[in-house]
Design brief:
Structural class: mainly alpha
Number of strands: 0
Strand content: under 5%
Distance between the termini: 40 Å
Number of helices: 5
Largest sheet: none
Order of helices and strands: HHHHH
């Protein structure tokens, strides 16, 4: 069946080798402090500043993102709704047939 199903190439993942994250974080803190003191002009608003902030603020979304777990699919939700409808029908009518 390999003739009809083409495999996708491996995704490109570039990781920096010579990056000092601590230094970049300290520079960002220093820049924010200078802006707060008025030594630098205020920063312009950009949508990139907000991107990802809501996920970082909530712990359950952060944990789900780190674990790589995905939410339920539509198929699983439809099966669960079907089972719940069957249970509700049984509770209302008392019969196991539809």
């Amino acid at each position: 069946m390999a003739m009809f199903k083409a495999e996708k190439p491996r995704a490109f993942s570039h990781q920096y080798i010579y990056v000092d994250e601590r230094k970049e974080k300290l520079a960002k803190i220093e820049e924010n402090a200078k802006r707060d003191l008025g030594m630098l002009p205020p920063k312009e608003f950009s949508p990139e500043d907000i991107r990802g902030k809501f996920v970082e603020a909530t712990t359950h979304l952060k944990r789900r993102k780190e674990s790589g777990r995905k939410p339920l699919t539509y198929g699983a939700l439809l099966v669960a709704i079907g089972i719940l409808c069957f249970v509700l029908h049984y509770l209302v009518t008392g019969e196991l047939t539809f």
